[in-house]
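Before our next group meeting I need something from you. Please put the record directly below this note.
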Amino acid sequence: MTTRRVFLIGAGGAVAAIAALGASSSAPAGSFEISMTDAEWRQKLTPEQFAVLRASGTERPFTSKLLDEHRHGTFTCAGCDRALFSSDTKFDSGTGWPSFWAPLENAVIEERDLSFGMLRTAIRCGRCGGHLGHVFDDGPKPTGLRYCMNGVALGFQPKVA
């Protein structure tokens, strides 16, 4: 017979194992063109940007100024200014985060994300490794993908006519 104590110990162990597998508290190890210490990133970024870009956090939905950005231009990494997405690929996904159906060529890298006990594909800046968001397979044509990005992790450069 399973006692309450045995059940709680087992459940706690399972939660800890899932958290350990999916824990992503900082940018992935590896060499990136731009690499700084956490202290240097904290000086460069706002606390909200640091939480998302360097600690893989998520901003609250419908809070980004870039959600309603409809000018022609380029969305960039807030950490290193790398061009990431063209405004031509932006669409309203209704999710509360800026969404795109494709990144610019060689701009981002994909990473397996097991956080919260589910398998997702995280998207990081290819230059600095900053966490940008996730990609899902429920987007519009032509790719069928939805790059759901944290607006706080992005900047915007309007196209100059």
Observations:
- Residues 25-158 form a domain with the Metal Binding Protein, Guanine Nucleotide Exchange Factor; Chain A fold (CATH 2.170.150.20).
- The mean pLDDT is 86.
- The longest helix spans residues 4-22.
